[in-house]
Amino acid sequence: MWKRINQRLSPRSFRFKLIIASVICIVLPAMITLSVNSYLSKDAMKEQAISNASRELKLAGEYVTKLLDDMLYIANFIQIDSELNTILKNNAKEPASHAEDVLPSEEYEKYIEYSRVVKTIENITLVGEKSYVTILLKNGKHYTNYSISEYNPKEFFEEPWFEQLDHVYGYEAVWIGSQPTVFTSEKETNPYQISVARTLRDSNLKIYGYVIVTIMENKLNQVFENLPGNEEMMLLNGDSQILSHANSEKIGQSFPYIEQMQDKHFSNIIKIGSHDYLIADHQVTNTGWKLVSLTPYMQAINKINSIFNKMFLVQLISFIVFFLLLTYLLQTITKPLVRLGNVVAAVQEGNLKIRTKINSNDEIGRLSASFDQMLERINKMITEITETQVRKRKAEFAMLQAQINPHFLFNVLNSIRMKVMRKGDQESAEMISSLSKLLRMTIDQEKEMILFKEEVEIVKDYINLMNMRQKEKVQFDVSITAEANVEKIPRFILQPIIENSIIHGLNQRAGLISLNSYIANNDFFIVLEDNGQGMDEKTLADVREKMTHREEIGPHKNKQGFSSIGLSNVYERMRMTFGEAFHMEVNSSNGGGTIIMMYVSRGGKRPNV
């Protein structure tokens, strides 16, 4: 593991490694501390969140219980009020329709009793939330605190839950969960209602009437909405059906997570979608109902998490401040090292005049002083080596020029001598003139570089001489631009190549040699082409191989006059003059002639031959 770490850090700078090591030593302990703290506080946060949810639920339960107790209070009052019960029992014994012979005094008395009952109902419902109270007698008579246009109480007899009242005694009650609102004025704004019902029994436990107290379901909703938390709260009946919810569309549906709550391993946290929710429940007394709350877990632990985040923020700020201070100190300490590294990089790029200029008495200062002394010694050695190389280059250049084989001059002079012996004519005079130019250029050691047009003139004289020597003449085609004419090259660069073309390519027979020179993209190009016999692939490969080997410059066994210096002589001399910028290519095919391209690259793109 440590080996991999060292391999990854090895290309980095010393300052980078030092900063990384420092950061690791700071960050790792901080992250370990935060992780341990988070792990230890996780259970405490969960317990606290459950406690907070239970407290909110208990508070909501008290409000809900108060509403339901108010409904029971109304039912209890009607059930235990003796005067009210006397009136109700007397009216329950009478038939639903009065006889036609009822005296006016009796009718008035019945009206007074009815008004007293209704007044009592209105008085007991003044306190608390608005509720709809119905006293329904067995014979169909009824007393309500609402108009019959709102709802006909006799329709309660048709409700499916009404039969349950026959099995209720004393203070027992039947709680009717959320059902569609039956009161006309409430239907539009309050779609659901909740009711509680009791029986009115005489001393023989026979039912003579019923008490039904109803409130709107939204009264419970208002309790949920007024709580300080943002949890989703609902009221469930014994069958886990939703009785009250902020979303009225969910009323009547089954609570989907009841099975998870009944699991013995239930931890008060359930996953809904991709989020965790905290679930809590609270039993509502006397009803068999319970309140359930769903709270996003992250929201439930928000306060505790906020404390943790603040602590983390304090640690983060402390770390950043300390890290900046550490970085500043490390930069100050390592600044000489960075300076030394920059100097080394500059030296690698070839700048040997740069110096570290670090003045300190520590190890870095002593290293910098030693490095500066080493640069001084290197500069001195380079100066000495450069001077030696210059002298050596001049000597080699003179040696290469001295290698021009005089055998050709001997043959030419012999030819002139033979012609002069036979007859004295103008042709011999021209031949001698051309030879004189060649001799003058050869003997002149001071003039190492000449204009390209001068080199071309030398080649023309040389071809004239060769044409006089052999029976079949060579045609020389020249195409040179004005820019190429003024370029400077070493002497006798073209002559050895022309000689090879005449002797080896054309085999001393008639033929065409073309010279083309131009400047393209600031590069200097020289192209020589003959229409001779060319070379096969093996011979061409040997020529290319030997062209770049200096051994070819020395003496040869099979010399062919002036051309024995060959391509390697030309290549070496041009490389010594122009360096890596000079390039030479030889292309040939059997029976297809030979093309030699030489060019001095100055940054342009070379065209295809």
From TrEMBL:
The UniProt record lists the keyword Kinase: yes
EC assignment: 2.7.13.3
Signal sequence, renumbered to the chain: none
Keyword match Hydrolase: no
Subcellular location, principal: membrane
UniProt-listed CDD domains: HAMP (cd06225)
Enzyme class (EC, first level): transferase
Keyword terms: ATP-binding, Cell membrane, Kinase, Membrane, Nucleotide-binding, Phosphoprotein, Transferase, Transmembrane, Transmembrane helix, Two-component regulatory system
Localization: Cell membrane
Membrane-spanning residues: 20-40, 312-330
Domain HAMP span(s) in chain numbering: 331-383
Pfam family for this entry, one: His_kinase
InterPro entries per the UniProt record, alphabetical: Bact_2-comp_sensor_kinase (IPR050640), dCache_1 (IPR033479), HAMP_dom (IPR003660), HATPase_C_sf (IPR036890), HATPase_dom (IPR003594), Sig_transdc_His_kin_internal (IPR010559)
Membrane topology, from the record: Multi-pass membrane protein
Protein name: Two-component system sensor histidine kinase YesM
Molecular function GO terms recorded: protein histidine kinase activity
